[in-house]
Amino acid sequence: MPITRGFLILFGGLVCTQPLSAAEPGVPRPAAATLAHACAGCHGTYGHSQGATPSINGKPEAQFIRLLREFKSGQRPASVMNRIARGYTDEDFKSLAEFFRNR
Predict the structure, then answer these.
(1) pTM value?
(2) What is the structure's pLDDT at 27?
């Protein structure tokens, strides 16, 4: 059976919805570049989206972090980002904001 674009989008969406484990004290978090790989599935390489999903490259750090916190708290509705954001810490948000700011 050939793999269709629809299947890849569905599969990618399922993969993207699996949040990282909650941070445990003393356990180092992955580097920003590693965390960013999960974002690329929906937001494109280095945050340059090629579709309907917004690009996240070049966003000001404060705006990037505010949006992710809003997704995490449920204040900002979303189809999957509110679930994804719950797996990240504030330190992860800051690292990602720095990573994508200059891409």
Answers:
(1) 0.74
(2) 81
